[in-house]
Structures are given as C-alpha cells and as structure tokens.
Amino acid sequence: MYFEFSEEQLMIRDAARDFANTELKPGVIERDEHQKFPAEQVKKLGELGFLGMMVDPKYNGSGLDTVSYVLAMEELSKIDASASVVVSVNNSLVCFGLEKYGSEEQKEKYLKPLASGEKIGAFCLSEPEAGSDATSQQTSAIDMGDHYLLNGTKNWITNGSSASTYLVIAQTNPAKRHQGINALIVERGMEGFTIGPKENKLGIRGSDTHSLMFSDVKVPKENRIGEEGFGFKFAMKTLEGGRIGIASQALGIASGAYELALGYSQERKAFGKPISGHQAIQFKLADMATEIEAARMLCLKAAWLKDQGLPYAQASSMAKLYASQVAMKVTVEAVQIHGGYGFVKEYHVERLMRDAKITQIYEGTSEIQRIIIAREILK
Ligand code: CAA
Ligand code: FAD
C-alpha cells in the first residue's frame, strides 16, 4: 500500500489550488451575499478541463482518475463550494452517467460539449414528493412511439438555470414501479420546459437551485439513456460516484475552515499569548486535523476503488456520511476559534459553516447514507 500521489495527481491538486486562490477567492463573499452564479469562473474551469475530468479525451475530457478529482474538489471547495458543486454535478453525475450508459450518438452530441465545459449539465431526480424516497417518481414520461411526452415538476435542481442539458428521471410505467422509470436527456429550450425562480438558500448561495416544470415536452426516443426501464438503476449507479464528489466537497469545506482557524489561532493573542498557546484551542485543532485526515482517507479510498473497477457504493456512502459530519463539526469549531470575528463575513468561516450543511442533505441525506451502508453490511 502506497500513501503517495503521482506527479500528475499533485499537479492537478496544485492547479486547482491556484485556481481557487486566484480566480474563486476574489468576489466569493459578494457572490454569496448576492446569490450570484460564478459564471465566468465556471467557464474558466471548463477551459482548464475541470468539468470533464474523468471523461475519455476522445469525448473532450481530461482522462484523469477519480483520485485527482477528489484532490481538485477538495481544493476548490476550500474556497468556494458554490463553484465546486457545479464541478461535482457536471463531472460525476452528468458526464459520468452519459459516458458510462449513453449511446455513441448521445456521447457525440451531448457528452462532448459537457466534458469540454462548453455546456453545463444538470441531474434531475428529486421532486416535491420524492426526495429520499426516490422511487416515488410522479413526473411521467408517456411512451408515444417515437417520443416520450414528459409532464411533471423537478425540485432543487443544481445548475437549474445555467445548464443546457438535463438528465431527467421520469416514470413511464407505474405498474412496474422502479422498473418502469426512464432517464431522458432534455435540452434547454424544448417546448413546454420552464424553469422556476432561484431558491434563496442558507448556503451555497452562488449555486443556482431551481424547480423545473415540464408540460407536454416531447423528448425523442433516442434521448432515453439505456434500455427501457433502466432509469432508476441509472440514477442509483450514477449517485454512487456523485457521492464521492460531494464527500470531497465536504472535505474541502472542512479543511478550508481548519486552515483559516489554524492561521488565526497563531495570530490572535489573548491573555498574553497567541490563542493557539491555550490547550483548549490546541485540542480543538488536534480534533479537527484528525477528523479531516480520516475523512480524506475515506474519500480517497472510495475514489481508488472506483479507479480499480471495484465496487465502491459502500465506500462512497461512508465517505459522504463521515466527511459531511466532519464539515459541520469543523466549521462550527472554526467559527468558535475566530470568536466574534468568525461571526462576520470578512473572515470566511461563517460562509463555510453555512455551506457545510448542504453536504448532509443532497445526494442522499445522512440518514439515507446510513441506510445504504447498513444494507451493504448486512447483504
Ligand atoms: N445500484 C444499482 N441498483 C440499485 C442501487 C445501486 N446502488 N440501489 C438500489 N438499486 C436498485 C435495487 O436493486 C432495486 O432494483 P431491483 O428491485 O430491480 O433489484 C431498486 O433499485 C430499488 O431499490 P430499493 O428497493 O433499495 O429502493 P428503496 O426505495 O428502498 O430506496 C434508496 C433506495 C437508496 C433509499 C434510494 O431511494 C436513494 O438513493 N434515495 C436518495 C436519493 C438521492 O440520493 N437523491 C439525490 C438527488 S441528486 C442531488 O442531490 C444532486 C445534488 O444535490 C448536487
Ligand atoms: P425528505 O426525503 O423529505 O427527508 C426529510 C427528512 O426525513 C430527512 O432528514 C431525511 O433524512 C429523513 N428521512 C426520509 N426517509 C427516511 C428514512 N427512510 N429513514 C430515516 N430518515 C428518513 N436533487 C436532484 O435531483 N438534483 C439536484 O441537482 C439537486 N440539488 C440540490 C441542491 C440543493 C441546494 C438542495 C437543498 C437539494 C438538492 N437536491 C437535488 C435534492 C436533494 O437531493 C434532496 O433534498 C434530498 O435527497 C432529500 O430529499 P427531501 O428534501 O425531499 O427530504
């Protein structure tokens, strides 16, 4: 067993770190405050190959491994989780799903511009009445011969108004329950497809989260991913990898907050010495560092398993469950170490604390991760 990264992996990590510090950091507070989508920054991320990191170069991807993806996600998320969620969704939900399960024509038409960052994608599973209980899909895709007629509402869709390509999960045959569900590629601008207003959120405020409404949208049959009835398995398999992305986002939020708290504790003086000289603060830092390292190991293990072609569902759920817990705990402690300064925006940690919460909710809540882990253990 080697605990060493390759030169290429380190190069990717450093490139992501540089990008985060030079391109994401300026303006991150304002974007959060005004809920501004990081459009220019996302465009540059695409040009640098961060939006199709693991996609084969023949489809315009960067051809990197999942370990590199974890390293990049951590660095980007230390600074701006609203930007890193775009990277996560585009890479591990949309590009992965299309590359692994799409037809050659779908890859040519849809994957190529998504992997190059020319276009952005969205993954649309959740509905007003189907979040954790994802098999209860109400959005319907009626088989009309050469096309599906799509009707319904999707909730909470990341990249909702910035995307051009939407992978939409919908029910075709309710009698078959989850085996009647299909995954369809929907293009922005298709007649009958409308986008609701942007959600006003606690965290990742720069990310554009919207409801999507479909009213008699005609989706050509050739836009179905995989066989008839494969849609639910498609969503589940895709989310296995997506959770590595969100786990790494949580890791980055935690390590970003930790680095700020560490630096601040060495500068801020109280009772005649830096607060890092007080054992109560040292113990906080020691716990934060230890838990972040454990979360990092879980993220890298899940990524490594995926890169080896080994099963990784349990590992990715463990990584997401644990890293999101660590993100919440560490960011709260980082605010505490900053005292009153931690409570104002200029010091960044309050934003990281707000951003951390979503990692316990999306791509399966912590309770859902426990259900998946328990099922795997008891299988
Ligand atoms: N791989 C392949 N198939 C799978 C699977 C997997 N990982 N997990 C489940 N399935 C299959 C099962 O085998 C079963 O099929 P068969 O009966 O044909 O064998 C079918 O799916 C139904 O499975 P379950 O009986 O286990 O279904 P369930 O109703 O008990 O729910 C669940 C399972 C794991 C809780 C699932 O509903 C789930 O993952 N819920 C959470 C949804 C979620 O993560 N949403 C995220 C939305 S995307 C997002 O959030 C993006 C973002 O924020 C940025
Ligand atoms: P519910 O499923 O109603 O859960 C409510 C509570 O009950 C939770 O605590 C949950 O853990 C608990 N619970 C539910 N079932 C059980 C059970 N069996 N046992 C124990 N506890 C249970 N979805 C997408 O499809 N695409 C996206 O791009 C996307 N982006 C998102 C971005 C944001 C900012 C947000 C807030 C959400 C996003 N989501 C997206 C939706 C997200 O995946 C769901 O919110 C999440 O899966 C939970 O579903 P829900 O909100 O309906 O909560």
UniProtKB/TrEMBL annotation:
InterPro entries hit by this protein: Acyl-CoA_DH_CS, Acyl-CoA_Oxase/DH_mid-dom, Acyl-CoA_Oxase/DH_mid-dom_sf, AcylCo_DH-like_C, AcylCo_DH/oxidase_C, AcylCoA_DH/ox_N, AcylCoA_DH/ox_N_sf, AcylCoA_DH/oxidase_NM_dom_sf
Cross-referenced PROSITE patterns: ACYL_COA_DH_1, ACYL_COA_DH_2
Domain of life: Bacteria
GO molecular-function terms, A-Z: acyl-CoA dehydrogenase activity; flavin adenine dinucleotide binding
CDD domains: SCAD_SBCAD
One Pfam assignment: Acyl-CoA_dh_1
Domain Acyl-CoA dehydrogenase/oxidase N-terminal: 6-118
Acyl-CoA oxidase/dehydrogenase middle domain segment(s): 122-217
EC category: oxidoreductase
EC number in record: 1.3.8.10
Domain Acyl-CoA dehydrogenase/oxidase C-terminal: 231-378
Cofactors: FAD
Alphabetically ordered keywords of this record: FAD, Flavoprotein, Oxidoreductase
The family this protein is said to belong to: Belongs to the acyl-CoA dehydrogenase family.
Protein name as it appears in the record: Cyclohex-1-ene-1-carbonyl-CoA dehydrogenase
Organism, as annotated: Daejeonella lutea
Lineage of the species this protein comes from: Bacteria, Pseudomonadati, Bacteroidota, Sphingobacteriia, Sphingobacteriales
